[in-house]
């Protein structure tokens, strides 16, 4: 059967562009299909912890300030009563700094890296579904609409990577549904001109307060962030978990305005300093779409539900899954079609489970627990005051720990992750 590429990658976000880069560098003929044209906006917090920075370094991307990255030295945690400033931990696995960059720039840079490596990027091409071989049930290509005139086209390849984000249209077309028992998140964000744009810390607001009536401050549902972008603006947003009672009946845009109107005026998070509109999207968490490999189709990043239930970070997991997928696909393509190739591909979901499965199972429990306001309140009120607990909370929430070796806290997180049973 004729083929258009050895591998088709659907979606040129962090998962797709990273996978395409590694594959092309290994000499694989990759067709990277993307529905938009670069540079384009993507609603996000624009922040990477050191775990994400490692992925950029692995790709050979210069993450220095001179190359346009804003560095963070750590995380400032704020509750109604408490502010903690914590430097990123010193680890074997990850660098001691985080970065921020608008997704407008970030995704463009990653897509250009893939093209430079030899991937064939085709923009303005919306994939509408998988082509499945009726006889074998294998995914052997994709149907798409391309160009200004949305011309129907089809492309064939022995392997297809679904990197199309939270919509997961490709996986759905192949019958891979999401697991409703796993947590989901919703998040909204906006850019504000602010004197805090060059703050060295990124911020996590564990409590959002409405102080419009100073006599009766009201605790709002959800968690907030502020990620300085160094260009005069800060990316400010909030998110909520599906485990929270308010999840379904909240006007998220109104919630963001209410919260920000109660933050100190000198921070600048006010309507008159806003740049652009409020954008929002869903966060598919804790492996909410599996299997990550079936019959010629691999799921990566958000398409495979890989956002961390601990902190809503999804870029690092998207890139980690891309690294693993590329490694297994390269090995698979070097084998004859049939059982031997399938064996190589079956290593991908196993490697993913090994890397983040236990940590995400633990995260799913965490998401369930903090969905209850009383648990969350107790955790912020008392937990963060116990000095001995702070490194555990910090490393656990950020995903920045050494999975092998490391100190006692790192070993405890790994142990808890391994011991958490599947739900
Ligand atoms: C408000 C908000 C804030 C967030 N903040 C952060 C943060 O600060 N840090 C962090 O790490 N994560 C954050 N996340 C999560 C993060 O944005 C995602 O986890 C990450 O983008 C996943 O990467 P991906 O490559 O899997 O998918 P995406 O980035 O969604 O990329 C998918 C790509 O596929 C393309 N595409 C989609 N459908 C098709 C189709 N049918 N055909 C062709 N192309 C298609 C899209 O145009 C896009 O380019 C946030 C999410 C939200 C909603």
UniProtKB/TrEMBL annotation:
GO MF term set: FAD binding; oxidoreductase activity, acting on the CH-CH group of donors, NAD or NADP as acceptor
Residue span(s) of domain FAD-binding: 5-181
Record field: transmembrane: none
Top-level taxonomic group: Bacteria
NCBIfam families recorded: GG-red-SF (TIGR02032)
UniProt xrefs under PANTHER family: CONDITIONED MEDIUM FACTOR RECEPTOR 1, GERANYLGERANYL DIPHOSPHATE REDUCTASE
Protein name per Swiss-Prot or TrEMBL: Drug:proton antiporter
